[in-house]
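for the writeup, i need someone to sanity check this before i put it in the appendix. the sequnce is what the collaborator sent (i think, or maybe the updated version? ugh). structure was predicted straight from it, no edits. if anything looks off just tell me and ill rerun, i have time this weekend
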Amino acid sequence: MGVARRIALSVTLIAALVGLAAPTGASASSWAATSSNWAGYATSEPGVSFRRVSGTWIAPAARCGSGGRRYSAVWLGLGGLHTTAKALEQVGTEADCAGGKGYYSAWYEIVPAAPVKLGLTVRPGDTMSASVTVSGRSVRLFIADRTRGTSFAKRLDVAQVDVSSAEWIVEAPSACGDNGRCRPLPLANFATTSFAGVEATSATGHTGTISDPAWSAVAITLSTRAHGLRFTTDQGSGTAVPGNLSPAGDAFEVTYQGARSGPPGA
């Protein structure tokens, strides 16, 4: 797939997580990590497979000003957390900037296949709800704009899936070359995105929130100083930081932070 096409749509690739830290907070099952393209929360646990992920979010407004092209995607999905992952099943929305204007859309992607843009109209402030369900190699994608009363659902049979993690993410989409090297695009200023009602269901039928003791929670910060094998970063781009989980572990915010001036380490 050519780079121009991948830029035009919301391309979401496997996260290059680095800097896995010691447990944070009171729970020994809570971890912190940095990524060159993801911000938000994920759940994962050795021996645990997931069959469903769901939640809602508020579609953010892109604050474009007079700058150039910038991109942001909000999504939930299964798989792709670990650097060894070869698949990712996801659905979400996008808020991009071009020519000083904001552009909004909905999409799904079954990595490594190309993303697919949907015909749903999405506007800033709309309440979106979505889910991804995997059974064997069958993937069911669902996304609804609760504000507008519209929705999309599709079932696909795919060659491979990854169900080793569940995620709720704001991302800087990436452009990839033919050599497989990917570069996160400049992150659009999306201000703040709120997730709520987030749940994951394991292959054994257990349903819980991000802080459920059946798995570990990973808080992911998007950092321009995160480097992985797949990704290089745009040092002039902004970053994004997840807030604390709600007491029930089913809600949180992700906040955009502007680019720092000066050389790395300044």
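The two ends are 38 Å apart (CA to CA). The longest strand covers residues 88-98.
thx in advance!!
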